[in-house]
Amino acid sequence: MPEAxxxxxxxxxxxxxxxxxxxxxxxxxxxxxxxxGPNGAGKSTLIKVLxxxxxVSGGSGTVLGHKLAKxxxxxxxxxxxxxxxxxxxxxxxxxxxxxxxxSLAGLPGVExxxxxxxxxxxxxxxxxxxxxxxxxxxGMRQKIKFAxxxxxxxxxxxxxxxxxxxxxxERESLLNRIKILASTVGKSVIIxxxxxxxxxxxxxxxxxxxxxxxxLNETLDxxxxxxxxxxxxxxNGDVTPISxxxxxxxxxxTAKPNGKLVVGEDxxxxxxxxxxxxxxxxxxxxxxxxxxxxGTTIQSLTPAKNSLEEIFMSVVSEAANADS
Length: 324
Fold this sequence. Notes:
Structural class: alpha/beta
Radius of gyration: 24 Å
Distance between the termini: 36 Å
């Protein structure tokens, strides 16, 4: 296992009578981590704690080897932060905003300007970088915040709702840039978001907060892996003939929208001690046999994945019941 970049032990944060974080234990490893939770779950407070912007009421932790309570400035020197809300000085152009952020991080004037242009090129900002930021669309302001967060080449990145308000094309472009930073440049990232497909698309680790507690901290690969062997198939035309065939083979069949079926083993079928891959192959072989015998056209067949949305709703629901 790689060494954890963030380690939190029993972190508590109280705001007078309200407990925002309640005994948070958390390890964050290199890669991209998705931070999820309903409104009021404690995500924003957790980010402020990681940045050393608020004092904790209890517990201890380290970020990039620095202690939370004593080395907040050292932590912030190594972290790039993209806030959810707009934060800029009126009258400044896009290039000036990014250059100012670079200067605050200690880059000298000429290098700050050079680096700012380089980062805005990476973000797809053309001549509009010279316009005042008040004239920007939501997507352009998101690009500027993103650029300002990474211009000083920080070791760790925290993005709060980075794709909020973006159209599908802009959203995909921003997610691709985050993937490039992680896979090519080796940056580690926390993304706090309400958009579950964003997490599904690029994250390695998923953390779910609810009522100030960590309810789930798992790799996306583990979350995607069903507990039972199953495959997902997409069928052209009527799904009834192949569904009936698969039922007769004692397989579990769940219909999904757009001609999609999830086909799995009977829960009581041990399949002779086969591993999950071998059991999936067995299920797939039966599906292909059914396609031949029923004349059904299989458009696609892949190992089934758990739905992150279903996992999220289940975790939040269980947490609400446990706290009530």
